[in-house]
Amino acid sequence: MSKLSLTPNGAGTGTYTLASPNNNASHTLTLPVATGTLLTTTGDGSGLTGIGGSAQTVDVFTSSGTYTKPAGLVAVKVTVVGGGGGGGFLNNTAQNNGGGGGGAAAMNYFMSRPADGNTILTFTVGHAITMAMGKTKLKIEDMAPIARGTNDPQILMVNCKTTPYKTPESFLAGMKKGDKISFGGTHTGTIDHITAYLWAKKTGQKMPKYIPFKGGGELATQVVAGSVDVGILNLSEAGAPIEAGDLCPLIILGKRLMATKFGDSSR
Q1: DSSP state of 237
Q2: In the chain, N or C: fewer CB atoms in 10 Å?
Q3: Given this model, what pLDDT does residue 70 score?
């Protein structure tokens, strides 16, 4: 039989208590193998409960990254802990930060780490805008780029069934003629907002009507619903309505065409 050893961490001063629950049922707590770590979601450990009163087994991801969801669970929350090169906001404590900060918290944490190559930040246009707005201490010269993970250009998309612009050429002609066209994007002051301004400037027009939405999914839905004429979207945000024939990509704001399962997009 294996021995159970409780080893304190010299850096900590808290007290951890392993106590039996106040019920008559028997519970088995199976600890992970050496590569796993057991965490609680609350200070009193109440976050670790059995499923339907049965024994609870704590499992870890395998070396291939797979995980078997215990029977009876509806959803599994995964928290990344420790170092690693995932590129997110990681440290040695579980993080439960909400979205909407434009990466400011991640960038400020990145700045607090030593320049030893062991901290990796995934940097996107959202981070760049946050930096330009002065919401972080991080500057371009503080980073050393090592890899480009994605190429997801902005695409101007319209409602396939109701738009008067059936081709990129007709859309461009309408813009240059000064047609009243509304553009939708995610939030204000973002890359979508800037895209609407630069596209209008490129066609010799003033800033068009811009309608901000909370996210790409909502924006795609509202273009289909007719609330806005043109959606400034990424392909990853609009795959389903494109496949359903509801959204049509007209203009890709990139140097090359995109070969996708939907066919080559326009330029």
Answers
A1: G
A2: N
A3: 62
